[in-house]
Predict the structure.
Amino acid sequence: MTIKKTIGLAAVLAVSVSAAAKDIIHDAEQYVLEAQHAEAWAKEDKAIDARLAELRKKHGTPPNIIHIMWDDMALGEVGIPEIQAVRGFSTPNINDVAEEGINFMRMYTEVACTPTRAAFQTGRYAVRSGMHTVAFPIEYSGMDADEVTIAEVLSKAGYMTAFTGKWHLGDTEFSYAHNQGYDEAFFQPYNQVPSMWTREAEAANVITGMFPEMMGEDRYDIDNSWQPRGSIWTLEGTKGGKTLEWGPPPKVTNFWDAITESEKRTLDFVDKAVDAKKPFFISHQPILLGFIPDPRNPKKRTANKNALAEAIERLDDFVAELRKKLEEKGVAENTLIVLQADNGPFIHYGPRGMVETLYTGGKGDFTEGGVRVPAMAVWPGVIESEQIVGDMLHVTDLFTTFARLGGATKYIPRDRVIDGVDQTSLFLNGDGHSRRDYVMIYVGPNLAAGVKGRFKRDWKNATPGLSKNEFYDLYTDQRERTGEMIEQFHVKSMFNRQRQRHEMWMKKYPNRPDATTGPALTGIDNVRPETEAISKWPVDPKKLPFNPAEVSEQPLPFTGSDM
């Protein structure tokens, strides 16, 4: 072994030694920061603990926490009225949250909806849980039962927990929201796509072939097993209780009714928890927009008139309603509300009206426009108002931060990597108090880019053994138009070491390769015949020379671009 190799190995192993002494296992990069700032952070934490104890004494409980996350929006679309003025829509109530609290300018997510939702719920990059690819109906897979959600962590600290809206983390029974720690759940297993899985959509040629009875005869269509002849829209359930289908069979109006019902149940849960004198955590992830307009409300409310603008104004109404409910129940000053999008805009294959705003790219991209989203937080009397914060944070950080605020840190698992960093200091002390300056960005199971401070490296398009224009300065090239080599030649080895540390830690704590497979849509007490048919093999397994169950266990050939 050469001297250079010995020194390099020693540097890497130093991280391992450092990590061994820590409680929660973080990504290796975090230990590099802790080694430099441990003393200052410990001092901050002492003051934070005193502040949280004071607040708990004042209110009698730890803070209530409400997290609202919607789909597909570029940074700048909400929270900045000046941009809305030229976009033809307005969200005054969401903008009030940004003005009365913190408007985060550097919230990172995963590249798409399923990965971001998994990351939020577990505090882990989606690649670690195997939930790195967007789930479509019917996937026969979901988030593994062994994953620990923020609901499970907070429940152990005495919180009542509820999930409403778009779950998108699987259609297997073990992956249902109420089987992943939530006391109550009203949820859609999938995304907005089933809004098209209706006879109304088939009649309008929005989809093709799902309902054969609506099509002309095709003598060449000989396989009746090839695609599902039905779907499911919404499930509901309670922890340890029954799982039920909600509403009539999927149709256009049922999609819109589910949105209304999800909001109603969110408000009702606030009533229930406050009346029980219990702290509560609500994860509300609205089915923001459908691909089929609501036939009951054909009139547009915005000048923009497209799906995203119409949907975000509807959500804006609900934010006002929710804040009014908290005031009426007397818990507004003891409630933290965090609002954010799940990823960038649906610009590549989505509905018209979704656009890049401040950054390049959108849903599915590892450029800043794909993973940098609007985010804001309000906590009256605790979070200082009118803050515009440039610090970096990642959606996984909310897992660890919410646990800290809820007095539940001790319930965070210690047998796996938790990517989420405790950002309580950032929430309470404001700009300049983040404990993160790095993000690893994955597309599917593949590392696409790394960010460190103001610098970013494009790993996906890098040429092995060479250096080219794969480095970006995010202060001077926000849209990632002109990669640099000579100007950032000095950061190449730094990014190499960052990746080495990261992948070394993955070898020590291996990822799940894919989402866990299983039968779809089982365990439903009031199951409809068409739903039950989805969960069963459409042909007699005894007539096949292979076991159908083994087929679903085979890995899929995902690539970096598969979303």
